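Final report, results section. Input specification for complex C-07:
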Amino acid sequence: MVPLSYYLLLSGFLFACGVVGFLIKRNIITIFMSIELMLNGVNLSFVAFAAHWHALAGQVFVFFVMVVAAAEAAVGLAIIIAVYRTRETLNVDQVNLLKL
Amino acid sequence: MSFHLILFLAFGGICVFGAINLLVHRHPINSALSLIAVMAALAGEYLLLGAEFVAAVQIIVYAGAIMVLFVFVIMLLNAGEEEETKGSRIAIVFGVPGILMGSVLGTWLVLRHSGTEAVPIGALPGHPTDIAQLLFHDFLLPFEVTSVLILIAIMGAVVLASKPESSAGEAD
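Structure output:
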């Protein structure tokens, strides 16, 4: 069997990649994808702990995280479309005013 | 090295490579495709951990539905810098058959020398029946609340993405 720590290392790496992408990327869609990457890293540690402790509730939590991520993706992409329609850009450096 | 560890390293390598690829590419469509690779490889990791149901949902919901939404929006908004990429003809001709041949050969070699057998569905602890018992019995209230969340998300997405002129016209 693969030790639990290997899965946690992979999960932490994915989460760190998501954080770095969130910070260094300038395209709003890529920033959004980095958030999805962070959620995936968390899901992996949920499933790893569920397998380690033989507790199936962890897998149900992953299911709920996926549902929330799907809802978040739908609303977030709608917001991105609305931002693009008013600003004509996807660069977050140019989206710095609340008013139009 | 056990068969389990080899598979973990293979899928983990795809995950790491895809995550780094997401960071280094400047065009969002490349990042989206590497994210799909990460999610598909994560489904493999879930299968290794015995979570069949989560692996199936990962492929269907994440790699399928959510990423299609992302790719759709990227195409719709024509996002990213215009980059001229010359696709290599050798890669097109030999790429897909080469990957197929390589993966089939690798699988055959690994399966032949590992001495493992295929695991029948249901032998692992993450059986869909147990998940259903948890989901529809122990976690019934959160499950019902997520349906309300999804309803709100649908309405929010429609309101946000609809054109302001047309919605104002309908209101009048």
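Chain A has three helices and no strands. The domain at 4-94 of chain A is CATH 1.10.287.3510 (Helix Hairpins). This concludes the modelling results for the funded period.
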